[in-house]
Amino acid sequence: MRHPLRDLTLVALTTVVVAGLLQAVAPTAAQTSDFRAARLQGARTPDLNGIWQAVNTAHWDLEAHVARPALATAPGPSGDVPAASVLVLGAIGGVPGGQGVVEGGSIPYQAWAAQQRQENFENLLTRDPEVKCFMPGIPRATYQPYPFQIVQSTNLILMIYEYASANRNVYLEDVGPPPVDTWMGHSVGRWEGDTLVIEVTDQVADTWFDRAGNFHSSALRVTERFTPTSPDHMWYEATIEDRDVFSRPWTISMPLYRRQEADVQLTNYKCVEFVEELLYGHLRREQLVKRWEGDLGDRGGRLIVDVTRGPSQ
């Protein structure tokens, strides 16, 4: 016979123990000092060539968070429930919990910016640039749930991202400021021992850090640090500075893993065409998507969702 209270207690204790172990292990991984990375041919610097990927929930929310019922919610009698716009997604539309990657636990927003972040969170389906397939910016591109590739030579580093075909050049010498701000910013790198340090500036203010509404202004400055810790692992840190939004600089950190599949390569996720109906469907002479109907079975009943479009305000 099962005892629900005992089961919940065991789950809670297990969660606490695992969280403690992970907190104890993570700094050790970041501080490995006796590993010497393979050298790039013809150079004294580490060889970072390869396809890498983060494996965490930072793309959902940089801060620690519990599982949520959906990307968009509405108040229910005993807690939030999925909003009509994502109701049909069921469990697929849920948000998994995560321990967070922000050092110190929370992002130090200025008072007005904390309110803006909450407003972004409540309206993310219409405000998150990822929904519209805009390029993710830095550091978000690093920990989206898609791989990215580093192509390195002795005088230039190229980073190519699977999502939206985003990419950036990392200049290893000062080439002067760019003429305009861009979605992926301006990246200038240098080596500090075996750590690749990249200063990223001149990003547009439109990118977000995650799907939880965390944002910045055009004053954003990101200092990234890529440190090899084993043949197939790197420790990634990004320090965020933005005097217009945050009260002080703050840092995120996480491991990156080299993909190991045979003949692994990036695939194309050119998502622009997937959002054409979302962005421009209201311009059609006759609306295409008008209604969704589905029989969810005895436990769900029949669901009908009407879609009404109008011109943008």
Reconstruct the topology from this structure:
Layout: H1 4-30, E1 50-53, E2 73-76, E3 79-82, H2 111-122, H3 124-127, H4 140-143, E4 148-152, E5 156-161, E6 167-171, E7 186-192, E8 195-201, E9 221-230, E10 233-241, E11 250-258, H5 276-280, E12 291-295, E13 302-306
Parallel strand pairs: 6-7
Antiparallel strand pairs: 1-4, 1-11, 2-3, 4-5, 5-6, 7-8, 8-9, 9-10, 10-11, 12-13
- Beta content comes to 25-35%
What CATH calls the topology of the largest domain is: Lipocalin
Total strand count, please?
13
The total tally of domains equals 3
Tell me the distance between the termini.
Answer: 59 Å
| Sequence of strands across the biggest β-sheet | 1-4-5-6-7-8-9-10-11
Give the SSE string.
HEEEHHHEEEEEEEEHEE
The largest pleated sheet is described as: 9 strands, mixed, barrel
- Low-pLDDT runs: 1-29
Just give the CATH class of the largest domain.
Answer: Mainly Beta
> Which overall shape is indicated by the principal axes computed on the Cα atoms?
globular
CATH architecture of the largest domain: Beta Barrel
Q: Helix count, per DSSP?
A: 5
Structural class: alpha+beta
How would you describe the oligomerization state of the chains in this entry?
single chain
Radius of gyration: 22 Å
Helical content class: 10-25%
Structure description:
This protein folds into 3 domains: 37-55 and 101-258, Lipocalin; 65-98, no CATH class; 271-306, no CATH class. Helices cover 17% and strands 26% of the residues. It is built from 5 helices and 13 strands. The chain has helices at 4-30, 111-122, 124-127, 140-143, 276-280, and strands spanning 50-53, 73-76, 79-82, 148-152, 156-161, 167-171, 186-192, 195-201, 221-230, 233-241, 250-258, 291-295, 302-306. It is globular and about 65 Å long. The N and C termini lie far apart (59 Å).
